[in-house]
């Protein structure tokens, strides 16, 4: 008999077929694997971690006119079909509703370890070589400029400003990606983020050299 995790994997694969490449099944799979690795180093509810990681981008607001209510509704309906206990459903929905970088100013006080783990995993997949590839893929998807020397990064944007931002892809490194290393919650997450962060710094150095034809 298939487990709830197996059924969730099948559901997410089908739901995200044809999704933008930075937020497709392969992103979900990486976050799931990263979260599972981090969970091994923490006392947590493994099922909540895995279900949350698998469902966290089932309906990313970026692709649904900013609507943050769709993902929790889809997730609840699916988990109820799987006869997942209400207590577990509430924990999973809490992670989904609070994981986003743009919602960091509304972060809950003393968040549960399951949220910390999945949030770290999602943020780790946003940096390093994969993070660079995803960032340029999404910038191309939005037809944003790669870089413009006269356009400065916008630091400290509000949630609404961040959602509406259409700045350059390089600026996104300063507006988000380079900030993530110091936002990790777990020791395992911090160690994973360090190498990827340094890779991005080296990439930016090389990018500017080539841009300026040095």
TrEMBL record:
* Entry-linked Pfam families: HD (PF01966)
InterPro entries this protein is in? HD/PDEase_dom, HD_domain
Q: Which residues form the signal peptide?
A: none
**Which Gene3D superfamilies does the annotation name?**
1.20.58.1910, HD-domain/PDEase-like
- Superkingdom classification of source: Bacteria
Q: Which PROSITE patterns match?
A: HD
HD domain location is: 24-127
Sorted alphabetically, which SMART domains does this protein's record hold? HDc (SM00471)
Name of the protein: HD domain-containing protein
